[in-house]
Every structure is written in structure tokens, then in C-alpha cells.
Amino acid sequence: MDRYRPFARPRLLAAGAAFLLAVPAMTALSSAARAADADLARNGGFEAGLDGWTCTSGTTVGSPVRSGGSALKATPAGSDNARCAQTVTVRPDSQYTLAGYVRGSYVYLGASGTGTTDVSTWTQSAPDWQQLTTAFRTGPSTTRVTIYTHGWYGTGAYHADDLTLIGPGVDAGQPPAAPTGLRTGTVTSSSVALSWTAVTGATEYAVYRDGQKIRTVSGTSTTVTGLSPSAAYSFQVAAVNAAGESARSATVTATTSPGSGGSPDLPPHALVGYLHASFANGSGYTRLADVPDSWDVIDLAFGEPTSVTSGDIRFDRCPVAECPNVESDAEFKAAIRAKQAAGKKVLISIGGQNGQVQLTTAAARDTFVSSVSRIIDEYGLDGLDIDFEGHSLSLNADDTDFKNPRTPVIVNLISALKSLKAKYGDDFVLTMAPETFFVQLGYQYYGTGQWGGQDPRAGAYLPVIHAMRDDLTLLHVQDYNSGPIMGLDNQYHSMGGADFHIAMTDMLLTGFPVAGDANNVFPPLRPDQVAIGMPASTNAGNGHVQPGEVVKALDCLTEKTSCGSYTTHGTWPALRGLMTWSINWDRYSNWEFQRTFDGYFG
């Protein structure tokens, strides 16, 4: 998004900073270790299979093993790095040492949720068993820490054995009893309501869908969302306290009703807009409380990195000197809560024109996850919008398969988004706003190409979209500030009229062969996952179209009327809606964009 158009002024952003992935040089605990220290890792030798561990891809094997009769074997595949993790009860403000033995290439061992600085260590190559060791101190209120191991994309299987977490133990007592009375409530095409009887001594409850833990909740009810229509699901719950997790409840099943799928928390047709929250320009500053109710998703622009490669995202609200009418932090947070109470979604948008983000290392990836989480938690936001532009994403020369990416900035972003989705659960709203160069251009060109020489950014968003398609709430490609793009009719389409939006959106809803390879097709997205990105006014960006052209584009895509020269490959009445840059520019233009949307969808 061009935040300063048309009143451009320079803004310096620190150049990429050199950094190291610190690998603490730790040794075994000395004789001075306190008597209270113990090994808190459960089944660290994998002698009881995967008991205590949650693995995205893993099994136990009898050879090779470092000791005992079993070890972990996990194989990364596609966008999965074969992470195995367990959550351990710890003491606040205490020192712990994490260690383990691994074999393979690019094997990681780490701890997250420490309350201080999360740590990880790794080996580039371990043809035989190699010990990895790191240490951390828990925060003053930290009682649970997640330890994990994982491999790297496309590098083959890794092995792990004899994982230990040494430090002060906790007398946690006994896990609670298994919950009873699990029952289903309202069932829609994409959600199932669950409730159960409270368990004495439980501090929270783990919810399982089809055998996989999907979230934890503090109460005795939840609604599982993001389901597919006309699909059968099974559910269980377990009670949790400091001692661990109970046995799971009896299983209940539910079949979702027919429908178009999508997020039940958004209206069938939604209006998405970016709000200039960290800066002002010619459009002026708009207070969040003054955003009209027509806007269903409000993207706060922008969270930006401290440097291009740091992964450390900061959200700095517009200073009074730049935005004299800016609200206080308390008023801003109150406005967020008021919007959410009215059913709106408020997200932090990362990137923009000036916010280049390159997650070149695992350390930058982990910093990205933790820093974005802090922003979401501080403001109580509903999720995240990824607006990576410029040179944030590009493909290495050997990265030719969008379904199995190899480039670190790509795989690290995918891993970070999966981590955030896992942390916040089904209700986490994830949207993306790539430019056409990074998506539809992939129909002709992907990366540097078979013979090299192409722009490595061509189509570079495709592996991210594809890897996250099951978790993606909305994709709203920026159909503006774009050069001509070839559509599925093999004709070039240019900005300025309904035709461009129709052709670009048809590609997303139909799917297309990447770089012309009929054996390598980017599958279509669901229509409820797609909104059309347009500038709100001529001031907001190149490619603005008049309201009548917006209506033509919507008519063509939802009713197959007013299509002009382009013939779509389907009709999609469930198309989610429109996105615009920006709410501020629309206000500057007397809310023309909003009024067009309200008039069309009513």
C-alpha cells in the first residue's frame, strides 16, 4: 500500500542488519545444581512412543537410537517442518537447561513461551548423534513452557533422542478427571457449538477435533469454526491443570450443514479497509471510533520491522505532532473493543510500501511470531493481515515448485503464520494483500524461470497462499499500482475498468497453471475467501475505477452479467466482497467507495 500517495515524503528505514543465531555454549549442570532440580521432560527418550509429544509429522523407530530401544524420526514435507513439541509445567523466575541428541541436517531444539527470551539452537549437519544444549530463565509469572524439536523444509528426515529439561520441579499434584457431558449445540455449515460439565480442579480445557488438539479454553463451552460444509467431525475435550491433562471425554460427532463454507464471523459480503493508524498523509487522520459501521474488517496500517531482516515488528501509533486529532491509547483500545462488540474484525497489518520484511533465518521467524503476538495481545486484536510488498518475498533460483518451497524467506513466513494460527486457534483471522506481480503474474512467470533472468519475485506469494489456504480467511489482491497482467484468456488486461478486476479475480476462483505448466496448477480458492482490492479514489493509487465499473465487476463475477469482453469460468454469488486502500482516502472522497458497496450489497 502506498501510504504517502500523492503527498510523498521520504521516510528512512534501517537497512538490513547483520545478525547471528546465537547458540549458547552450555554444559551439563554443575555439582552446585540445587537438589530440587529435576528432568521435567516427559518421555524424552521416546520409549513410550509419542506419549506426551504433539508432532505434525513423526513416529518412533528402533534404529538408530542413542540409548534405550526407541527414538523419534520426523520428516519435513512441503510447508511442514516436522515439529514435535510438549508443554511442561515450570517455576516462575527460574533457570532451566534444555538438551537433547539429534541426527540429520538442520535440526533445531528450542523453547517458547518462556516469558523472557525464547531460545533455540541447531546443527547444520549431524551424521551421527550430536548433543544440542541451550538454556533460558522463565519470566516472573511463567508457569508453562513449550519445548520442541523440528527439522527444515526439503532436507529429509531427522532423529531425536534423550531430550531433557533440567531445572526446578513443581509439585503439581494430580491431573483432573476427564470431562463428562460433552454435547453439541448449534451446527452451521462451518461451525459446531460444544459444551460440557465443569471439572473440579481444572484451570482450562483442551478441545480436540478428529483426534487433534485445536485450542484450549477457560470455560465449559466453545464454538469450533472454520469447518467445511456437509462434513462429519468428531470432538473430545480434556481437563487441564498444572499437573497435566486428563484423559479425554467421550466422543461426540456432528455433520455440518450444506453451504458455501467460510468464516461465520464475517457477513456473507464484507467490506475491508485499511486505516492509517501509524501515520498521516494528505487524506488526514481518521479516529478508529469514527469509522462507519459499513466496514467489516479494519486493517490497522502498519506494523513495521525494526530492520528488514530482524523480524521484530513494532506498531507505533501516529504521534500528535503528525496527527493532532489522534486519540489516546485508552481511547484507541476502547474503540477496538467497541468495533468488536459490533461484530467487526480489527487486524494489525504488517508491511506496506515502507515495511520490508525478510524472515531470512529461524531466529527472525521466531522474533516475528513473538513480536506480532505482543501487538495482538496488547490491543486485543482479531488477527493479522500480511501486506508484504517490494522485496520482502522473492524466490531462490532452485525454488521452482510452489507446493514445496525452499527459499528461507518463504518457508519461514509460512512457519510463522502456522505458529500464530496454532497459538490463537480457529477464531484467528488471517488475511493477505499481495500485489498482482506476486500472484496472477505467476500464470506466466515463476521466480527466475527455467533459464534464469526473470525477476525472482514473480509469483512469490503463491507458495504462501497455497500453504495457508486452509487457514486463510481472506485474500484481497491489490488490483492497482499494477502493470498489464495476462488473464486466463491469454490476453493482457490493464487497470482502469471492470475488465481488469474480473480477469484477475477469475484467476483466483478458477485456478491456473503456474508458469504455463499444466502439471503444476495453483488450485482455486473458495469464493468466500476472496475480496477484490481497489483504491478508494484517484488520490489513493493508480487503477481507481468509477462506481459504475465496480458494479459491473461485481455483476459479472456474482451473476455473470455485464461481463464485457472477458468470459468468466464460473459464477460466484458467495464472493466475499471488496477491499480498499483506504478508509482514510474514502473519507477524503466523501465515502464514495463505501456508498457503492452499501448500495450493491444492501
Automatic annotation (TrEMBL):
Q: Which Gene3D superfamilies match?
A: Galactose-binding domain-like, Glycosidases, Immunoglobulins
What are the boundaries of the signal sequence? 1-35
The enzyme class is hydrolase
Family annotation (PROSITE patterns): FN3, GH18_1, GH18_2
Q: Name one GO biological process term.
A: polysaccharide catabolic process
EC no. given is 3.2.1.14
GO molecular function ontology, one term from the record: chitin binding
**Highest taxon above the source species:** Bacteria
Keyword set includes Hydrolase: yes
Q: Which residues form the Fibronectin type-III domain?
A: 178-259
Occurrences of domain GH18 (ranges) = 269-602
Give the InterPro entries listed for this entry.
CenC_carb-bd, Chitinase_II/V-like_cat, FN3_dom, FN3_sf, Galactose-bd-like_sf, GH, Glyco_hydro18_cat, Glyco_hydro_18_chit_AS
On whether Transferase is a keyword of this UniProt record, the answer is: no
Print the keywords alphabetically.
Answer: Carbohydrate metabolism, Glycosidase, Hydrolase, Polysaccharide degradation, Signal
Pfam families found in the cross-reference section: CBM_4_9, fn3, Glyco_hydro_18
The family note in this entry says:
Belongs to the glycosyl hydrolase 18 family. Chitinase class II subfamily.
Q: Which PANTHER family match?
A: ENDOCHITINASE
Per its record, how is this protein called by name?
Answer: chitinase
Q: What is the lineage of its organism?
A: Bacteria, Bacillati, Actinomycetota, Actinomycetes, Kitasatosporales
